[in-house]
């Protein structure tokens, strides 16, 4: 739905920018020209961010930062526009937010960079770099018009995946294995390595042990809302048993030093000097 809206805007914007730009240059200052250009530039940046969220593992601007065979939309379904499955809707209203894991207040950009390191088993892209600015712009566009409510408790938006009402230690991997074969294996493969119809869920090309979904309780809560794709009908018990089975398999280990870029690439100044 986002794509059709922005698609309409971007087909209109080049001609609009050209006409208004020429007119403005001829009669007023270049400062006003820059202001007239900005709606078009912002729309283009938001649209680029949408593409990157969808094609993170293959796009030339982001693929060097992704180690898993996963895109952001693999978990943030429908490019984050799914209303409940790790939705990006309204997320920007919660930032800056307190993050217990980092022991400090983090920005929405930090949260995006952390998902590259953990959920995508990749390298933290430079802060302020064009792909990151575009993705943050896209995610922010999905909160337009919503009231800001910075989250002082945790880095989660108002639509966060709610925890299940079960003790995660009671997940039964043996029951989960049978359910996985019936409900998941066709798309994610019996060996968890994925097929053309679904990405890997464990093994070397999956998310690493630092990702939220590597915890049985978080995976179970997300599965309840998200899988099987387009037919998310698992009971809480089924979701927990399947999560226990999926996470009983090996996945890349998370050692933070392996996911940080060299110090000089940690951030970039992206303005004019
Ligand atoms: C393996 C699954 C997975 C992948 C891949 C993934 N994420 Fe996440 N991400 C999650 C989960 C799970 C959460 C926590 C969601 C919740 O608790 O509601 C999360 C949280 C977030 C949040 C915070 C949401 C909030 O409510 O505040 C942002 C922003 C985010 N991810 C961005 C990204 C971006 C950008 C990418 C791609 C570079 C990405 N994620 C890739 C699983 C994933
Ligand atoms: C019809 C095929 C299909 C079925 C059945 C299915 N999935 Fe998925 N699953 C997908 C696709 C496709 C994605 C990525 C979403 C996207 O790119 O839009 C995905 C994403 C995931 C992810 C997050 C990304 C990753 O690979 O780590 C997990 C975990 C997952 N599925 C687990 C399951 C489990 C467990 C079941 C069974 C309850 C299941 N899926 C059933 C197709 C399927």
Supply the key terms:
273 residues; mainly alpha; Cytochrome Bc1 Complex, Chain D, domain 2; two-stranded antiparallel ribbon; 40% helix; 2% strand; disordered N terminus; binds heme C
Describe the SSE topology.
Blueprint: H1 2-27, H2 30-54, E1 97-99, E2 104-106, H3 108-117, H4 130-141, H5 173-183, H6 185-188, H7 216-226, H8 236-246
Antiparallel strand pairs: 1-2
Helix pairs in contact: 1-2, 2-4, 3-4, 5-8, 7-8
The structure holds heme C (2 copies).
Explained architecture:
40% of the residues lie in helices and 2% in strands. The chain has 273 residues and is an all-alpha fold. It folds into 2 domains: 2-160, Cytochrome Bc1 Complex, Chain D, domain 2, CATH 1.10.760.10; 168-246, Cytochrome c-like domain (Cytochrome Bc1 Complex, Chain D, domain 2, Orthogonal Bundle). The longest helix is centred in the first third of the chain and has 26 residues, at 2-27. It is globular, with a radius of gyration of 21 Å. The site of one heme C has 29 residues, from helix 3, helix 4 and helix 7.
């Amino acid at each position: 739905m986002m794509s059709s809206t922005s698609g309409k805007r971007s087909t209109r914007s080049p001609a609009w920018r050209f006409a208004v730009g020429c007119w403005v240059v001829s009669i007023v200052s270049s400062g006003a020209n820059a202001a007239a250009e900005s709606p078009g530039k912002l729309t283009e940046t938001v649209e680029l961010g949408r593409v990157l969220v969808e094609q993170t593992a293959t796009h030339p601007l982001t693929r060097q930062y992704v180690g898993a065979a996963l895109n952001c939309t693999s978990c943030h379904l429908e490019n984050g526009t799914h209303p409940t499955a790790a939705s990006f809707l309204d997320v920007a209203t919660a930032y800056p937010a307190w993050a217990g894991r980092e022991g400090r207040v983090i920005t929405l950009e930090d949260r995006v960079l952390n998902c590259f390191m953990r959920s995508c088993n990749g390298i933290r892209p430079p802060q302020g770099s064009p792909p990151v600015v575009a993705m943050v712009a896209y995610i922010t566009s999905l909160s337009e018009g919503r009231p800001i409510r910075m989250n002082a408790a945790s880095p989660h938006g108002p639509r966060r995946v709610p925890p299940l009402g079960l003790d995660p230690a009671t997940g039964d991997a043996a029951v989960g294995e049978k359910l996985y074969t019936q409900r998941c294996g066709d798309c994610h493969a019996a060996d968890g390595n994925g097929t053309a119809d679904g990405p890997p869920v464990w093994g070397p090309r999956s998310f690493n042990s630092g990702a939220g979904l590597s915890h049985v309780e978080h995976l179970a809560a997300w599965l309840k809302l998200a899988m099987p794709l387009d037919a998310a009908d698992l009971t809480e018990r089924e979701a927990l048993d399947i999560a226990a089975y999926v996470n009983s398999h090996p996945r890349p280990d998370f050692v933070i030093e392996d996911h940080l870029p060299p110090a000089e690439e940690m951030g970039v100044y992206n303005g004019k000097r």
